[in-house]
Amino acid sequence: MIWDEKLRWAGFWILDAVHGKPVRKYYDQIRNGWKYGSSMQETEKKIQALIRHAVDTTNFYKDYPADTALTDLPVVNKETFRNHYDEFLSSMHRDAPDNREMCTSGSTGTPLRMIQNKDKINHNTAGGIFLGTPAGYYIGMKEAFIRVWVNNVKKSKFRLMQENLIMMDSSRMDEEALEEMLLTIKKKKVKCLVGYSSALGELSRYLEKCQNKKFPKGSVEFAVRAIIPISETMPEPVRRKLEEQFGCQVRSWYSNEENGIMGLQNKEDNGYHIDTESYYYEILKMDSDEPAEEGELGRIVITDLYNYAFPILRYDNGDTAVAQRREKDGRYQLYLTQLYGRRSDLIYDCKGKAVTPYIITNNLWDIEGVKQYRFIQEDVTRYTIWLNGDPDKMDKKEIVGRILPYLGEDAQITVEIVDEIPVLASGKRKYIENRCEKYSDHTGFCG
Prior knowledge:
By secondary structure, the chain is an alpha/beta fold. The chain has helices at residues 3-18, 22-36, 40-57, 78-83, 85-88, 118-132, 157-163, 175-187, 197-210, 236-246, 358-364, 396-407, and strands at 38-39, 100-103, 113-116, 143-147, 165-169, 192-196, 226-230, 249-250, 253-256, 260-265, 272-274, 279-284, 298-304, 315-328, 331-342, 347-348, 354-355, 370-377, 382-389, 412-417, 432-434.
């Protein structure tokens, strides 16, 4: 780190020490849990303390006994929070002046507001610092954050200076906007890129196209040392291409606005290591609230152990995963060996078996001539692929041939060339869409 970055890093921890080390305490806790595993006994104490608090201070849980087991509470989702918002607010924290309001992007539905108490904010800060470090990011690094910067998330000039941050808006991703982004990254010596996976993918595509012209291949003109995709699944070929282009590691955060940064992608594969000091995860069956079997695809259900202003107990955030829990000497670690993302992004083969989105993203990303795509499941055996790009270069037969084996011999795949594939209102790009009525009850929303 150069001198001003070192000064920012040291300054942050000095200021934290002046205030009693609230962030350092949680940083050390998360670091130890990450390395050695979280105590199962301490985790149970956290869960029971949160339940007692929710029973005592919220209208939603007031009729439950204070010693209710977590599994006896209902599974909730975004719609539950929207429809009963005031009932979830804690009477102890609802008017606290140091609360923070978070808001989801609302990319596929109405945005969700949620408040966090100061202790939760400190824990989120500690989690972000710790989970940034193995990804190559440190406090004080010059960072560019690529997302749609709507009013409720925009930062003031003072905050931008304080955080050494550049806001890059992904609402426009045409070639002019992409060139401007890359020139800014170069000129401002940006060291960390954080952003929607689809936006970073577009940046990679443009850089690949222009690297021998405006941005010489193999040059050392970029100072980037860390790239952290968020919010969407990044195809493995894109991840590797970005690593090649910028000469640094690319590791995604598993995060959302309402909870925070919950995990970090492994360096060697697409799995995620979850922060079990801050969150307790259940993986439940797709069609019931029973625990999924070992190795079975299930719904992610989150208990946020530190938000006392808006208790989040058994929150089905719409994502699906296959998990592996490792236990030793009364401690445990949790890995999402496969993170499928939103249930609305799940597709199924002709026999009704869920197929990982990586089958689509990894097989379509390197097809010559393809600029953008969307894979749509129309019904049980019919699928459509929208392609935007150069029709003279795109090999439809090769595309179908790559994907057909994963869907079954009865699959009917139609390829359509389109002029444009629109992004969502949030600026994210939807690569997978399931329109089949049979699977409509499996759809969900994750901010």
